[in-house]
Amino acid sequence: MISILNLTKTYNYATVVDVSSLTLEKGINVGLVGNNGAGKTTLFRMLLDLVIPTTGEININNKNVRGSDDWKKHVGSFLDERFLISYLTPTEYFKFVGDLHHYDQDQLETFLNEFQEFFNGEILGTKKYIRDLSKGNIKKVGIVASLIGIPEIVVLDEPFENLDPSSQMRLKAIIEQKSKQGITFLISSHDLNHVTEISDRIVLMEKGKIINDMQGGQQALVVLEHYFNK
Ligand SMILES: Nc1ncnc2c1ncn2[C@@H]1O[C@H](COP(=O)(O)OP(=O)(O)OP(=O)(O)O)[C@@H](O)[C@H]1O
């Protein structure tokens, strides 16, 4: 589904990503972990063709993300607020994204209804612009928008950050439910408990390189706690 080959990114002579080979398979949720500056976001930005690699390539469904647009309809993503249109209300923004995916009004309402609990009355129909929402609520808008159209792959950068504990639990349930509907998640997170729980596979980065690649779950949590406790 996703294959990465000889990928590097260098800024001012410093190589911040150096991944010689990585293949991600459909149906296997992957959690990307690593300390600040390990290269997780840069890797995601190259995957989404937002940053040009210095060398190497990333293919989604056998198409290089550079120079093709085919993959875009199969990939949902939310990395940061720049993905949103801040002068719209969430309702207007969801309509905008829904239109891109040819959702009619009923379809969009049915889709958004699934997230009532997650939204906790703070998102829909509040007349607030996205720019005026709290950080956690902005994150919820971005996460839910990334799921519109039931993409094959959803890439999320630190989705649990800024969410209150109830919302974190609800997000885990959403990820679990959407995985069953066929979405494969690629998630970076500093929350070791959550990321090991929702991921089938954990990829650990250090200084741009992959230094461990293991199955998710309790055993991964033990390994990661040991690593980060150094
Ligand atoms: N545009 C840029 N110019 C120069 N250096 C950059 C640029 N973008 C990223 N970097 C550097 O690349 C390195 C990796 O950053 P990146 O944001 O990918 O790390 P990360 O693993 O996502 O970190 P965090 O956990 O703090 O979000 C950092 O040293 C960062 O300063």
From TrEMBL:
GO terms for molecular function: ATP binding; ATP hydrolysis activity. It holds the Pfam family ABC_tran. Residues 2-224 form the ABC transporter domain. SUPFAM superfamilies: P-loop containing nucleoside triphosphate hydrolases. The keyword ATP-binding applies. Keywords: ATP-binding, Nucleotide-binding, Transport. PANTHER family: ABC TRANSPORTER ATP-BINDING PROTEIN ALBC-RELATED. This is ABC transporter ATP-binding protein.
